[in-house]
Every structure is written in structure tokens, then in C-alpha cells.
């Protein structure tokens, strides 16, 4: 339990108690989901309805609840007890049947082949071993299952766009949210997929932050072909 509790020292757990509050520092994270899933949807056969979906690094539950609204059978996993508690409490308070579990992405607490789809968004650049995380995701995917992800490229532009501008100049993302050295290039990501036996699908796509809406704190996001900052991808087991 000591290792699990230590995970509450990491950045996002600090915001567990206010994750779903109006004006929360985490509110901007929700802005990405409509654009992420506009890209992800092209790889999902028929619809999300009834699909067994795991959200790895679920935090306080933004993406898990987004998927639940699409009819998926959703599970979420995160190393932070405080975030799992916040996610579980909000799901219960809003009548959503979502199963949340405590666990690290590098050692997922699920049997082989448990899920049709695994999502992992804004996570791989925060874990200790992204390669091991991808391997674990492959393990829990059913044959032919989908891995849908986004992460951040390690470029000068990503340092400017994802750290200097949002964290230091505009203050629209809390300071310390990202470490440039942990960002992952597309070539590195392709290597992780290949090593785990996952087959890339389609063409990678990018997302760009264009500012923040003052009224509700959401971010202005624009889909782009530029992969120098946030990029999205898909793979099949």
C-alpha cells in the first residue's frame, strides 16, 4: 500500500478534491475530448455502445464519463487513491455505472484480453515506463482490440506550446503539469507499439491549443496535421 499511497504525491492528485468543481484548474482537460474522439471514432466499428473500454490513467474521470455517455461499458484505472475516490464519487452522484480501480499503467490489474478498446490520453508522458505501459495495454486488449492514445512530441515547439505558453505565460495550465524530457516522439511511440505487438492504424493527427475561453475556462482546440505538440494515434492488437 505504501507504493500506491506514494502516487498521491504526484501532480494531478493535488487537484482530486476540486476535480469536478466549477472553475477547477482541471476543467481545461475536458476540452480535448470532443476533438480526440472525432479522430478516434474513425477506428471504432459501428459505435461505442456496448464496447468494453478501459481508460488508463483516468484521473478524476473526465474521459471515462465521456465514454460512458457514448454507451460504452467503462472501466478506469489510476495510481492515485484520491483521484479514484473523486472519480468514483462523481460517477455515483451522477448515476453512472463506471468501474474504477487502483493501479499503475505498467501493471494493470486486469486479466489478459479483458477489453475491446483501451484509451490512454494525456498519460504516457507522465508514466515511469511508457514502453511497459503500452505492453500492458496490449496484454489486456482482446484479439483485434483497439488502442487509442494521445501524447506530446518532444520538440522545441512543444516546449513553447505545452509548457512556456500555457504554464508560464498564460497561466491556463498549472505549473509543473509537464516535463519536456518525458515527452515522446512519434518514432519512439512507433517503437513501443512494435515491441508490444500492436499494429499502427491510419495517419497520426495533431491537436493545437489556441487559447482559453474566459467564460467557462475551456480551451480552444484546433485539429491539425502538425505533430510537433499533441498528437493522436491508433493501433490494433
How is this structure best described in words?
This protein has 237 residues and is an alpha/beta fold. It has a single domain (2-236), classed as Rossmann fold. 29% of the residues lie in helices and 26% in strands. The chain contains 7 helices and 8 strands. It has helices at residues 2-6, 33-40, 62-68, 81-93, 130-140, 156-169, 186-196; strands at 52-56, 73-78, 99-102, 115-121, 141-152, 199-212, 219-224, 230-236. The protein has an 8-stranded mixed β-sheet with strand order 3-2-1-4-5-8-6-7, sandwiched between helices. A hairpin with a 6-residue loop joins strand 6 (199-212) and strand 7. The longest helix is centred in the last third of the chain and has 14 residues, at 156-169. The protein is globular. The two termini are 32 Å apart.
Amino acid at each position: 500500500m505504501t507504493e500506491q499511497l506514494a502516487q498521491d504525491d504526484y501532480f494531478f492528485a493535488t487537484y482530486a478534491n476540486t476535480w469536478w468543481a466549477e472553475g477547477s484548474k482541471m476543467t481545461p482537460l475536458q476540452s480535448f475530448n470532443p476533438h480526440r474522439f472525432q479522430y478516434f471514432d474513425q477506428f471504432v466499428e459501428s459505435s461505442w455502445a456496448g464496447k468494453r473500454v478501459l481508460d488508463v490513467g483516468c484521473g478524476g474521470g473526465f474521459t471515462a464519463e465521456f465514454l460512458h455517455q457514448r454507451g460504452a461499458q467503462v472501466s478506469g484505472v489510476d495510481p492515485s487513491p484520491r483521484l479514484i475516490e473523486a472519480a468514483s464519487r462523481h460517477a455515483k452522484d451522477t448515476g453512472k455505472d463506471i468501474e474504477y480501480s487502483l493501479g499503475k499503467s505498467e501493471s494493470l490489474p486486469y486479466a489478459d484480453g479483458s477489453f475491446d478498446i483501451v484509451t490512454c490520453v494525456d498519460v504516457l508522458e507522465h508514466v515511469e515506463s511508457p514502453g511497459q505501459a503500452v505492453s500492458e495495454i496490449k496484454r489486456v486488449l482482446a484479439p483485434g482490440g483497439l488502442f487509442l492514445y494521445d501524447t506530446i512530441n518532444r520538440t522545441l515547439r512543444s516546449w513553447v506550446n505545452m509548457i512556456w505558453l500555457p504554464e508560464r505565460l498564460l497561466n491556463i495550465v498549472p505549473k509543473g503539469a509537464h516535463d519536456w524530457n518525458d515527452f515522446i516522439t512519434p518514432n519512439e511511440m512507433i517503437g513501443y507499439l512494435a515491441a508490444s505487438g500492436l499494429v499502427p492504424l491510419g495517419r497520426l493527427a495533431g491537436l493545437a491549443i489556441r487559447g482559453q475561453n474566459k467564460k467557462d475556462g475551456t480551451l480552444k482546440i484546433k485539429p491539425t496535421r502538425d505533430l510537433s505538440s499533441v498528437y493522436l494515434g491508433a493501433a490494433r492488437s
